[in-house]
Amino acid sequence: MENGGQLDVMMAGMAFGLSMIAAHLLFIRSDHREVHLPLALFFATQAVKALPLAFSATGLDHTGFVFHLLSALSFPATMAGAPLIWLYVFALTREGHSARPRLAVHFAPAVCAVFIAVFYISLPLDVLNGMKNGALPEAASESSMVGFVAFNLLVLKFAHYILVAIYLILILGRLTIYRARLKQLFASTERRELHWISTMAFTTMTFWCLSALNSWLNVCLVEPKNTMVIEQVLRIGVLWVFATWGLRQKPGFEHLGSEQAESESWVKYSRSALSEEHAVRIARKIETAMERDTLYRDPNLSLWDLAKHIGVTSNYVSQTLNETLGKTFYDYVNVWRIKDAVQQIRETDETILAISYDVGFNSRSSFYTAFKREMNMTPSALKRQSMEMARKVPT
Question: Does residue 8 register a pLDDT over 80?
């Protein structure tokens, strides 16, 4: 076996081992089963995909029935990977009792791949070995079954690329909606943002492009050794990140009570649900809660905490914030936090870090981002400006 082939086998073995360990750890977890089960099944499919090459590392005959059976199993495993990641992201971002996705729709391509796999494994070994070597056997011209399988394998390959692209778009769209919803409900969202999944989506897009390039080079009968190496390294990297983060990631809305989850929805509220006069009264209560009670200083403040504090339903509070005060809950609370921080920077000798935590921020980075957005300068710049003005004032 050439060095390139040995490297492929080694990387496949790593992918198989990593996927099996991650799948096992996720399967045995009892918490958040709706989240962990799709990810566990995803790692199981990745282990199945790696089996044919990993089997080659054993030194056993890779022209026999077992090898081709493992290859056939990889067809539905390949088509099920993207939908399973979508279900994982959906479960992470699902709020309350929102509708579940229709599994039959998402796994229809994988079911089709099962039928193709059955037809594939029913072919004679000499025909299967000819397909594996990249050449369509002469029997294809004589057998409609061989031609049917060969054509559908090609369709399956390109359908996989299309499927991955579709689900990447769905995932990025879902995350965009999810982050917008977080800002309607929480004053601090850093620990719920799921930026790592967005990063993985873009990384997977790179992986997808390289894989598509590799397939195109194979069609052109070019040996793409370097492309294969990069593709395999990226595959291991993606699996490693999903294993590391997936084992510890919690749902963004895990702390919602059943009554809260049922009362909130992802749709816009109807303007007729709250009169203008009532909204103005609620706005005054909100302003009082922030100015007099400094409720914004609670780093874990949520929409329901505010609603409970002022004695108004969370639906009405959210509608008042969006339509009367013109801000999301997140932006509104952070305006008050920055206002307090500005005053402390100008009037006290506290460090900027101490001030950021005092006014309710969970991290220095989120404080700096919010401060610069509101003040068009950094906290350090405001501190220097205040010190210079103080020196200019005659004693």
Answer: no
Phi, psi (deg, nearest 5) at residue 302: -125, 170
Spatial separation of the C-alpha atoms in residues 211 and 206, rounded to whole Å: 9
**In degrees rounded to 5, what are phi and psi of residue 29?**
-75, 140
Q: In terms of Cα–Cα distance, which of 164, 238, 183, 214 is closest to 15?
A: 238
What pLDDT is recorded for position 58?
Answer: 64
In this prediction, residue 212 has a pLDDT band, given cuts at 50, 70 and 90, of confident
318 to 4, 167, 181, 287: CA distances (angstroms): 59, 31, 11, 14
Ramachandran area for residue 360 (φ above 0: left; ψ -120 to 50: alpha; else beta): left
Bridge partners of 302, per DSSP, are: 186
- Residue at 69: amino acid letter: L
Q: Which region among 119-133, 155-169, 371-385 has the lowest average model confidence (pLDDT)?
A: 119-133
Question: Which of 129-138, 239-248, 263-272, 325-334 has the least mean pLDDT?
Answer: 263-272
Residue 374's pLDDT is what? 92
